[in-house]
Amino acid sequence: MITIGIDAGAATTKGVILLDREIAGYRIVSTAFDFLSTAETLFEELLATSDLRQEDVVKICATGYGRMMVTFANATVSEITAHAKGVNFFFPEVRGIIDVGGQDSKVIVVEEGKVIDFLMNDKCAAGTGKFLEYTAKALEVRIEDLGSLALGSVHPAAITSICTVFAESEVISLRAQGIPRADIAAGLIVNIAQRIVIMARRMGLKEPIAFVGGVAKNSGMRVELEKELDVTLSVPSEPQITGALGAALAAQKPEKRSSA
Q1: Are residues 56 and 86 in the same domain?
Q2: What is the DSSP code (8-state) at residue 147?
Q3: How many Å apart are CA 82 and CA 78, to the nearest integer?
Q4: Quick one: 48 and 170 in the same domain?
Q5: Which domain holds residue 6?
Q6: CATH classification at residue 190
């Protein structure tokens, strides 16, 4: 049985092809202005790279911020449920999930892949990948290099701003004071990590805990979260696809039939 999950996120759109219980392929692309056209292009690329035809796909399930715009999908599932299913695929023993994406951060309490409770910060970019993106630009470093740069810091700078715009200005001010890039980068990561830790403690996350989303690729963030929470985080080899994977898994679930 071949199903496809599409996670239409605010920053990136992810797609996963699932052949029974095996990942047969995946793609990650930047989300354009039009969620639908981005998803359609992603879908076509998934088929092409996996040598599949549209008729080979039994069901398509969409999740994420723009899931309702993916009109060619047969079904939708909430991103909270999708991440729980996707993480359970990689780490069945996980009891807590920290998901930090481009526009929001989530802390999810799970039990055997089922959502028990969750907390989401989607009102402000502070504590998200967008925060890192803007401040990395102010530091004139690639966002991919921000984590490794921060790991070289000896004295992390104190970043007090909670607003992305003000934090960017604060970074520029610290540069003018001659503070090393590594210390500023570390200060930014500490700033975000502390916000996520507050959410995690509020929800009472218990080990094992998985760390997913695009920000999970940031080595400095992973180290800081592990230090603050005093845990070892489980991170999939590709932490950005858990939502799309969860949607593909949801698509494989037989539909309930009403009794005659």
Answers
A1: yes
A2: H
A3: 6
A4: no
A5: 1-91+238-260
A6: 3.30.420.40
Considering its fold, how many domains does the chain have in total?
Answer: 2
E strand or H helix that includes residue 225 = helix 219-229
249 SS3 class: helix
Alpha-carbon torsion angle 189, 194, 195, 201, nearest 10:
140
258 contact partners, CB below 8 Å, separation of at least 6: none
pTM, 2 dp = 0.89
Q: Give pLDDT tens digits for 106-154.
A: 999 999 889 999 998 855 555 566 778 877 888 888 888 888 999 999 8
Sign of torsion over alpha carbons 102, 108, 112, 116 = negative
Query: What's at 196, amino acid-wise?
Result: I
Q: How many CB atoms lie within 10 A of CB 223?
A: 17
Question: Do the beta carbons of residue 200 and residue 107 sit within 8 Å?
Answer: yes
State the Cα–Cα distance between residues 236 and 87, nearest whole angstrom: 8
Q: Rounded to an integer, what distance in angstroms lies between the CA atom of residue 98 and that of residue 76?
A: 22
On whether both 133 and 49 belong to a single domain, the answer is: no
Judge if 72 and 120 occupy the same domain: no
Check whether residue 14 and residue 55 sit in a common domain.
yes
Q: Are 219 and 247 in a shared domain?
A: no
d(CA 58, CA 166): 48
